[in-house]
Amino acid sequence: MSGIVDAHLHVWRIDAPFHGWPAPSDGVLYRSYNLADVRAAMGDAPVDRVVLVQAQTDDRETDWLLELAEGDPWVAGVVGWVALDSPDAPARIAALAARRKLVGLRPMLQAIGDTDWLLRGDVARGVAAMVEHGLRLDALVQPRHLGMLATFADRWPGLPIVIDHAAKPAPPGDADWRKGMAALAERPSVWCKLSGLRTEQATGADPLALAPMVARLVDWFGERLLWGSDWPVLSAAGDGYGDWLATTQGLTAGLSDDARARLMGGAAREFYGV
User: Fold this and answer.
1) Which residues belong to the signal peptide in this entry (predicted)?
2) DSSP symbol at 50
3) SS3 letters for 172-211?
4) 65-106: per-residue pLDDT in tens?
5) Rounded (10°) CA dihedral 196, 202, 205, 211
6) Helix (H) or strand (E) holding 214
7) Does the pLDDT of residue 127 top 90, yes or no?
């Protein structure tokens, strides 16, 4: 494997005034992680570029991530956060879009009790600004959101959407998850990340037990499936960076060289425009 683009990576500072998660109760995750830690965790893995994804619902974190990215050519882009329901969202989005490495935004939908929040009228102003400025939406959703996300994708066909962590189902994914994901895959604007699956498995579960789920994702999304590590959240499953990389190799052993190159880098380059 070479030319990898990690489409889902986190860094954070627990001493930052904007830090809210992870908390001390989150164990191994409760420490600061910077780009040097990322490189050390990767070892000799051939990762050409990375995409940093927000972890806090705070404008200051997005500004900080962009400063990191602008100082390191290895970082291909940043998926930031904006309060999309704020009257100031269009102006904030316009200002962020002027920064070269801002590639998308991620509302923390999994933490919002209202499953249909993304369809609200006061959110539409922010979404329209995203479309205007050529940004993408990272959909941090759970299976309860899949029907809503289909409605949203139909309402905003010009907005590229990527489903983070395959919507975080409990493996192997129930019938409702399968039906919802298959329906979303029929929409050409919707992509999916092969990431985050290990942290949804039961403690001690065999990672290769994810094979049926991964096979479905490959079948549904094909060239619109992109790989991410979700590091360091991955550590909560007891895996290192190389473990998930090796698991991915095993789970996709049947892919052609071209298909694997697309999964591990080409799809992320196209989706995020990097």
Assistant:
1) none
2) E
3) CCCHHHHHHHHHHHCCCCEEEEECCCHHHCCCCCCHHHHH
4) 999 999 999 999 999 999 999 999 999 999 999 999 999 999
5) -50
6) helix 211-221
7) yes
- Residue 8's Cβ-count burial label (10 Å; 0-12, 13-18, 19+) is buried
Query: CA angle 199-191-80, nearest 5°?
Result: 70
* Kind plus residue range of the DSSP H or E element containing 106: none
Cβ neighbors of 80 (< 8 A, separation 6 or more) are 54, 61, 62, 65, 66, 96, 102, 104, 105, 106
Q: What is the mean pLDDT of residues 235-258?
A: 96
3-state secondary structure (DSSP) of residue 245: helix
Q: Any residues with CB less than 8 A from the CB of 271 and at least 6 apart, and which?
A: 7, 136, 160, 162, 191, 224, 226
C-alpha 221: how far from its chain's center? 15
Domains, the chain, in order of start with CATH, read: 4-272 (3.20.20.140)
Query: Looking at residue 257, what is its pLDDT?
Result: 96
Three-state DSSP class for residue 101: coil
First-residue to last-residue Cα distance in the chain: 19
Amino acid letter for position 73: P
